[in-house]
Each structure stands twice: as structure tokens, then as C-alpha cells.
Amino acid sequence: MPKRGSAVHVSTHRRHYVGKDGVARDYETHLLRRSYREDGKVKNETVANLSHLPGGVIEMIRASLAGQTFVPTDTSARVTRSLQHGHVAAVYAQAKGLGLPSLLGPAGRDRDIALALIVARVCRPASKLATTRWWADTTLAADLGVAGATTDEVYAGMDWLVARQDAIEAKLVRTHLSGAVNPDRLALFDLSSSWVTGRCCPLAARGYSRDGKKGLPQIEYGLLTDPAGRPVAVRVFPGNTADPTAFTKIVEAVKDTFKLKDMVMVGDRGMITSARVQELRELGGFGWVTALRAPAIAALAADNGPLQMSLFDQVNLAEITHPDYPGERLVACRNPALATERARKRLALLDATDTELSKITAAAEAGRLAGAGKIGIRVGKVIGRYKMAKHYILDITDDTFAFTRDQDQITTEAALDGLYVIRTTVPAEQMDAAKVVATYKSLARVERDFRSLKAIDLDLRPIHHYTETRVRAHVFICMLASYLVWHLRQAWAPLTFTDENRPDPLDPVAPAQRSQGADHKAATKTTTDDLPAHSFTGLLGHLATLTRVDLRYGDNDTGPTVPTLADPTPTQRRAFELLDAVIPLTLK
């Protein structure tokens, strides 16, 4: 006998046949059926035949059995709760479209918490405690089942995620750095830092601060991206790690962890130094695109060197060779706009230095400052602040101080204004000189990612965690959020001030130009669809106004509650269309 009380459902059967009169006929039968198991086999019992009911009634029964609630149209309703929905729904839709949930690992409590932390970092970056309080006011917590997550569970989710970091990054690297998607085998790498609160973090150390927070402990982290600037891996280092050391670590990861060969590493002149180049030579299987430092450029520009200003009479770039760089191509560039800016900046710094040094001279003459040591300390602070020591000749005694500009040194440096030389092992048949320049300048995309990570979108800094594992987990969460933001910015470019169709520059050395479409959006503050143009964070804020409300019907607290979405604005509707997603009632 069937098990009474088991769930019932509406089953629809369609029959099609051609009668003797040659007329095709279709019949539909709607049955209310109950499934049960008997002797290990699934069987069905027909409870009622609903075929005689109107179609709307049948669909209402079907939906009701699926869990939806229906109330009389004349019943009063009131809003019992309203939750922000649009922004978390859009970010979750993008994450799902990229396969991020499955990329993180097997389904479970830890994955749900980790995914919620990533989505929350995109929508509203904050500390972990503030995040768990915030997501309870959105549909994120309820739909992912993390509304009641404790602090210990959040930390456990972070530990679970960072334990899977190598596997996750390996998949991202295989997807974006290998194969046909990256024919030139390019990988971009750069280093940044963020300050740390507290004094217990073993990674915290004092070093060169890129945040302008001198005197505070910090951590450093290196970001590996594909040629388009899409983040694929991140490494965290102690705060006093030098750029070349960090570069060595990421090369080891590319070779040993990610198993990639024949890669071309792109890094700035402080990252890929001559010593690192020699290491890459010895390691084998790696090429590079980087730039020479000022002393090396000055050596090439000597009277008997290959870098002469006459090379730039007709063009802004020229390819040269030198025996000190065997097996490498040197692409020399001169940017007139950069030359003008450097000259302006040097003059401004010299004038500022003159003003401060003149104050020291006056103090020494008036007797308010005496002693060569004390005078030297004051002078050192000034020239250290403006970094102009190489341009001055100083005369310090116990009771006098005098200074003059070293005009020969200034003239020598000014002759190199706007000049930079890119060195690479990439052969000419793979990449011409113009593309080499464009490849090196693509490091600006990594710098843009750092701005997004640190301040604009994700607020990675400051670091509040004090164990090494949690610090690495925090940075990794921010990197995955940056991966999401990169794709969201690409998808939502028509709705934001992003230049969708930036023209390819005719001169790779010249500054980039915006398209007419970007200028139009900036001037009119509207998109090509006549919708208001937003910044990326402004668009997320606008999506947050798309709420999901709980409507309770009836005059008492026992009436049915129906979750309902607010009507989306045209911008909100367009944002989901650009993600190839419908606006969902629930995230899952």
C-alpha cells in the first residue's frame, strides 16, 4: 500500500495523434499524483484528475504544491521586513557565471561562508565583524544560510579557503595564462604594501611604504595577472621584503606550483633587476620584459653609446643593441610629454629646496644655528625630503652654511628626460618594437588592480588580523574579490564611465587617448542608452536599492508571508542583462 501523507504533485501528460479524418489532435491530462516506494520500486498513485479545471487553477495548484503561497486579492498586506538584494544578487550572479563557487571547493558550510565573504568584500568592504553584521541586512546571509555564522565559523571558513589557495590559483592560471588565451605567454607581476594594526602579526615589519604610512609596520603582497590585468594569484611577504626577492618567489611559484614553462615575465625596473635577469637565465624557460634603470640608460647615452638623441628626430622609439645585453632587444623611447613633466617637477623641487636651504643659511648667519653637525642634520632633512641632494654643492662649517646648484649635474639629468629603455628577450617575429612598448606599459593595469584592492573598491588596508594564516586568507579573499570586480567592470562598462572602445594609439609611446564615446559619457553623465552613467561603486549602491520585502497578508501575525521584489529601475534591469542573468528572487 502507498504511504499515505507523502508529498503530492501535478503531473501533466500530452498525447498527439491523427484521427481517421486526417486532423491532428492534442490532448492534455493533468493528474494529481502521489509517489511512493514499494518493494524497492518507485510507483505512482493518482489522487485526482484535474483536467476539467481551468488552466489558471491548475497552475495555482502546481505552484502551491511547490511551496508558493497564495492569498485572496482583497486581503490587506503589510511589509514585515525589507532586505537589500540587488547588489548581492548581481555579484553572486557574476560569481556563479564564472564558476567561482565550484572553483572554491566542494559544497558545504565553509564554502558558503567563504563565498559570502568574497561577495560582501565586493559590495561593502569592512572588517569581518562588521561584514557579518552587514550581510544580515541583505539577502546574502539568508539565501546562503550564513545568517547565524559565529566569529569562529568565519575564521574557520577563512582557514579552509587559504588551505585551498594553491589549487584555486592553479586553476585560474591554467584558465588565463596558458593555451590559446595567452599566445604571447605573458604574465604581469607587481608588488605593493599595506599597513598593519597591532603589533603581534609575524609578517608585519617596517619597510618601504607605498601607502605613505612611514613608521608603521606593514605587509607586502605581489599580484600576478594575465596581460589584460585580470588577477590570477597573490603572494604575501613580510613588510621588509625587497622587490627582487618577491619576484624570485613568484617565479618559483609559476614554475613549481603552476607548472608553466616558456613564460615571459613583465615587471618594472625595480622588480626585474640585472641580478634577477641572471637568475632567469640560469633557471631557463623564462623570458622577460622590463626597463633599464637611470644609470644604465646614462651609460647607453654616453658620447660613444648607441643611445643618441638623433634617433628620435623622426620617431619616438628606436631599437638598439649593446654587448652588455646579449640575446636581448633594447627598445629606446622618448616621450616629449613625459620630458616636459619631469622638467617641470624638477624645477619645482629645486625651488622648494632652495627656499628651505635659504632658511638654514639665514639661521646660521644670525647665530641661531651653530655647529657643523647640527647644520648638517637640518640640511639632510631638507634634501632628503625633496630628494635633490645630487643637484647641490654644499659647504658646511661650524658657523656657516652655503649652497649652490650643481648645474652640470642638472643639465646631464635633463638630457635624459622622457627617455626610457625597455629590455626583452621576446624575438622580433613574435613582438615588434611597438608591441614591446605596449606590453611594458600594460603594467599600469596591475597598478589599477592595486588601487582597486587597496582603496577604490575593496579596502584591503589596513590589516587587522594578527596570525599569518588569517593575514594570507584576508589578502586571498581580496584577490578573489578583485577577480570578480575585474569581470564586473568589463560587463558593466556601458553603464559606467569606463571607456568601452579606447582607440589603439598610433604612437605607443604617446599618452593614451579616450574615445569620443567616453568623452560623451563624461560630458553628459549619460550612457548611449540614455541611462544615468555611474561610477562602479555608485552602480553597486544603486543596485542595493532593489530590495526584497516580506509581505504578510491578513490582519494578524498568522497570515501567509510572501517574499516580493521591488520593481527594478531601467538601470538595474540593464545591469542584470549585461551579466546575462535574470533578476532572481533568491540567490540560490
How does the helix and strand content classify structurally? alpha+beta
Overall shape: it is elongated
CATH topology name of the domain at 166-293 and 433-465, in short, is: Nucleotidyltransferase, domain 5
Beta content comes to 15-25%
Q: Numbering strands along the chain, what is their spatial order in the largest sheet?
A: 7-6-5-8-9-14-11-10
Query: How many distinct helices?
Result: 20
Q: Quick one: biggest sheet?
A: 8 strands, mixed
Q: What are the low-pLDDT stretches, counting only 5+ consecutive residues below 50?
A: none
Rg calculated over all Cα atoms? 32 Å
What is the name of the CATH class of the domain at 166-293 and 433-465?
A: Alpha Beta
The span between the termini is 37 Å
What is the level-2 CATH architecture name of the domain at 166-293 and 433-465? 2-Layer Sandwich
Task: Assign a percent range to the helix content.
Answer: 40-55%
Find the count of extended strands (DSSP E, 2+ residues).
16
